[in-house]
C-alpha cells in the first residue's frame, strides 16, 4: 500500500484528534519533511488539513468524493465497513463482493461504486445506477445462521434503510414486502438484493446489495422507470450528501444486526411492521404463474408474509411478489 494511503488512513482513524509529525514519520518510516510534503499533496486534492505546532496534523474535511478513505472518516461502526472497496465505475458491486467473499471471506467488508453499468435487481432485472446519484453498495456478511433464515436479513436491511431515510430527511418511507422502500405516492426510492452462498445447513456468506436513489431528477431515468421511481432529491427538493448517508446507514444496519444476533428476529419484526405498507389492505400475490388476492395480515414471527385468503384462512408465504389491488385491476 502506498505511503500516501497509509497516511490518509492514519489521519482518518484519528478522526478530529491531532497526530504529531513525529508519530507519523515513525509509523510511515519517512522523514518529517516528507510527511509535510505529503500533506501539501493531499491539500491539492481537496483535503483540508490543520497543522498546529507542538500538536501535529488533523483532517478538517475531506473532498466530497466517495473513496475508501472518505467513507471511513468519521464512521461510527465497530465492524461493518472497516474494510471498504470503492470503484468509480463497475458492472455491479454484487459481482465484486462475490469474488471477494469467495477468496477471502471478509465479514463486514463493503463494496461501493459511484456508478454501475449493469446494476442488477431481483430476477435479473435491471437496476439503474448512474454516476454520483445514489448509494450503490454491497455488504459481505457471514452470519452464523441456517440458509432458511436469510430472508430475515433482507427484512432487517429494509428496516435499517427506512430508519436512515427517515432520520436524515424527515420523510416517511414505507416498506413494501419484502424489500422495496417507497413513499405514500407508491414510488420506489430503494431496493435490496440478497444473494446467498450456502451449504445445506449453513450460510457460507451473504451479499446484501442496497441501491438508494439520492440525487436523481425525474429525467435521469427512462420512461418505464420514471413511472415507478423517485429519489430523496425529488421528494425533498434538495441534494443530499451521499457519504453521510452511507455512514449513517452502516451504523444503523450494524446495530440492528448485532441486536438481531443477540435477541432474534422479534425486534426487527416489530420495527418492520411499523413501516410496513398496506397492512390490513387487499393485495395481489404473484407466485410463479399464479395470481390471487388476499388481505395482508402482517409478518409471522419468522418473517414470512401472513395473508388471509379468500376462504378466510391465514397462510404464510415465503416468496412471491405483491402488488396493490388497484394495480392488479388496471393491468
Ligand atoms: P427489483 O427487482 O425489486 O427492482 C428492479 C425494478 O425496479 C426494475 O425492473 C425497474 O422497473 C425498477 N428500477 C430500476 N432501476 C431503478 C431505480 N434506480 N430506482 C427505482 N426503481 C428502479 C431491487 O430489485 C434490488 C435492487 C438492488 C440494487 C443494488 S445497487 C448495489 C447492488 N449492486 C447491484 O448490481 N445491485 C445491488
From TrEMBL:
Pfam families: BPL_C (PF02237), BPL_LplA_LipB (PF03099), HTH_11 (PF08279). One of its GO terms (biological process) is regulation of DNA-templated transcription. GO terms for molecular function: ATP binding; biotin--[biotin carboxyl-carrier protein] ligase activity; DNA binding; transferase activity. Biotin binds at residues 116, 120-122, 187. Residues 21-40 bind DNA. Keywords: ATP-binding, Biotin, DNA-binding, Ligase, Nucleotide-binding, Repressor, Transcription, Transcription regulation. It catalyses: biotin + L-lysyl-[protein] + ATP = N(6)-biotinyl-L-lysyl-[protein] + AMP + diphosphate + H(+). GO terms for cellular component: cytoplasm. Residues 69-261 form the BPL/LPL catalytic domain. The keyword Ligase applies. The keyword ATP-binding applies. PROSITE patterns: BPL_LPL_CATALYTIC (PS51733). Its EC number is 6.3.4.15. NCBIfam families: birA_ligase (TIGR00121). Acts both as a biotin--[acetyl-CoA-carboxylase] ligase and a repressor. Belongs to the biotin--protein ligase family. This is Bifunctional ligase/repressor BirA. It comes from Virgibacillus chiguensis. The lineage of its organism: Bacteria, Bacillati, Bacillota, Bacilli, Bacillales.
Amino acid at each position: 500500500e502506498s505511503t500516501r494511503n497509509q497516511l490518509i488512513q492514519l489521519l482518518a482513524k484519528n478522526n478530529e484528534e491531532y497526530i504529531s509529525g513525529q508519530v507519523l514519520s515513525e509509523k510511515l518510516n519517512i522523514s518529517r519533511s516528507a510527511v509535510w510534503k505529503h500533506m501539501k499533496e493531499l491539500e491539492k486534492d481537496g483535503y483540508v488539513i490543520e497543522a498546529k505546532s507542538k500538536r501535529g496534523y488533523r483532517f478538517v474535511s475531506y473532498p466530497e468524493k466517495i473513496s475508501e478513505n472518505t467513507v471511513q472518516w468519521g464512521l461510527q461502526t465497530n465492524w461493518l465497513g472497516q474494510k471498504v472497496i470503492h470503484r468509480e465505475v463497475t458492472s455491479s458491486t454484487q459481482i465484486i463482493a462475490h469474488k471477494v467473499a469467495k477468496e477471502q471471506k471478509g465479514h463486514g467488508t463493503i463494496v461501493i461504486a459511484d456508478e454501475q453499468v449493469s446494476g442488477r435487481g431481483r430476477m435479473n432485472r435491471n437496476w439503474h445506477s448512474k454516476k454520483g446519484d445514489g448509494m450503490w453498495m454491497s455488504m459481505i456478511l457471514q452470519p452464523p445462521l441456517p440458509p432458511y433464515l436469510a430472508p430475515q436479513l433482507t427484512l432487517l436491511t429494509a428496516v435499517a434503510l427506512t430508519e436512515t431515510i427517515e432520520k436524515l430527511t424527515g420523510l416517511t418511507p414505507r416498506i413494501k414486502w419484502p424489500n422495496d422502500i417507497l413513499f405514500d405516492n407508491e414510488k420506489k426510492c430503494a431496493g435490496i438484493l440478497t444473494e446467498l452462498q450456502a451449504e445445506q445447513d449453513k450460510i457460507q456468506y451473504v451479499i446484501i446489495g442496497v441501491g438508494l436513489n439520492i440525487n436523481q431528477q425525474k429525467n435521469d431515468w427512462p420512461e418505464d422507470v420514471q413511472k415507478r421511481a423517485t429519489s430523496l432529491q425529488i421528494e425533498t427538493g434538495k441534494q443530499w450528501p451521499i457519504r453521510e448517508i452511507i455512514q449513517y446507514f452502516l451504523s444503523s444496519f450494524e446495530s440492528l444486526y448485532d441486536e438481531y444476533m443477540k435477541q432474534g428476529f422479534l425486534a426487527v419484526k416489530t420495527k418492520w411492521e411499523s413501516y410496513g405498507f398496506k397492512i390490513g389492505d387487499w393485495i395481489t400475490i404473484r407466485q410463479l404463474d399464479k395470481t390471487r388476492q388476499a388481505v395482508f395480515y402482517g409478518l409471522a414471527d419468522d418473517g414470512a408474509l401472513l395473508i388471509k385468503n379468500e376462504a378466510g384462512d391465514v397462510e404464510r408465504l415465503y416468496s412471491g411478489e405483491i402488488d396493490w389491488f388497484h394495480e392488479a385491476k388496471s393491468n
